[in-house]
Amino acid sequence: MIKYVMRRAATYLVMIFLTTSAGYLLAVSTLNPALLEQEKIPRPSPEQVQANFASLGLDPSLSAWDRYTQWLTNIFLHWDWGRSPNGAYINVEFGQRIWVSTRLYLAAVILSIIIGVALGVYSAARQYKFSDRAITGYSYLVYILPAPVAYFLVQMGAVAINSAAGQRVFFVTGISSPGVEPGWPAFVDLAAHYVVPTFCITIMSWGGFQIAQRQYLLDSINADFVRTARAKGLTRNQAIRRHALRVSFIPVAQSIAFTVPAIFAGGFFAEAIFAWPGIGLWSIQAIGAQDVNAAAATLAYGSFLFALGAIIADIATTVVDPRVRIS
User: Fold this and answer.
1) Does the domain spanning 95-279 belong to CATH 1.10.3720.10?
2) What three-state secondary structure class fits 89?
3) pLDDT tens-digit profile of 232-264?
4) Are 205 and 213 in contact (CB under 8 A)?
5) Beta pairing partners, 89
6) Which tens digit of pLDDT belongs to each residue from 7-47?
7) Which pTM was predicted?
8) Do residues 110 and 284 touch, judged by C-beta distance below 8 A?
9) Where are the chain's structural domains?
């Protein structure tokens, strides 16, 4: 198992290197932060712009290949991902924002998986009944509903509740309140800011897991080995629990392994709407700010997450499927 994981990790490491390198070369060839300098008042001279960017390691006079080799050398030798046009260090910005994104999505992802899989099993066991139709219908609705629209609707609902109550019941933006004392008050304030975004991400994410689990379980329920188990005296629920559930969870486990990184890497809508300065929002802002190094760093982060998801999918398959063995 360890040797297999190491081989897979080496393969994905090469893929991450290639995608990040290609992304950097594309970004350095198309993004031009010097254009934004012309919007400043007073407008700096070309010589000042040149000197400023050269001091930041963003010298526009160098070729794309020279900047790439300089950037890559700093990463390999010093783990220095460079600086932004505003002078900020990419390592510092990334370290702060990845923690924000992790705090925002971790609880929501865990809840989405648990609720989605549980409701998928529940609805499959009650196929075509009212509960099945209601749960599956809702899942399809949120599956096709654009995430920004759903987030805005929930946010507006929280604002309406605050207005009706005459006081702030829910926090709809930000990660914390200014001036809160450290310790327990800060923890309570942080938890209060979690409620609305965690609720939004959860109700928007579990629909896909519910649909997949229901469909795969229904396929397994009608399989020959389940009918054989029932012929031997097991009830329908016993046959589902002992035989069909594990088989149906195999493809679901693989989809979870790939979906979770996608949620972490692509959650810029939630971060923008709820004003959480995480990785997803930073990746969009990097394009607008013509920030080559930040764009490359977020691309490398996304590539790493999907590679990690692929490895986890392989491991999950061996755990839930007794027919698969890794040698």
Assistant:
1) yes
2) strand
3) 888 877 887 777 877 787 788 777 777 766 666
4) no
5) 83
6) 888 998 999 999 999 999 999 999 888 878 777 778 888 88
7) 0.81
8) no
9) 95-279
Q: CA-to-CA distance for 283 and 299, rounded, in angstroms?
A: 8
Crossing angle of helices 130-144 and 184-221, rounded to 10°: 120
Q: What's the token pair of residue 23?
A: 């992304």
The closest of 290, 298, 288, 287 to 265, measured between CA atoms, is: 298
Q: At what angle do helices 184-221 and 245-265 cross, to 10 degrees?
A: 140
Output the six-digit token pair for 215. 């469909």
d(CA 155, CA 273): 9
Alpha carbon 164 to its chain centroid, in Å, reads 34
Residue 325 phi, psi (nearest 5): -135, 140
Helix or strand run (H / E) with residue 293: helix 292-320
Give the separation between CA 306 and CA 15, rounded to whole angstroms: 11
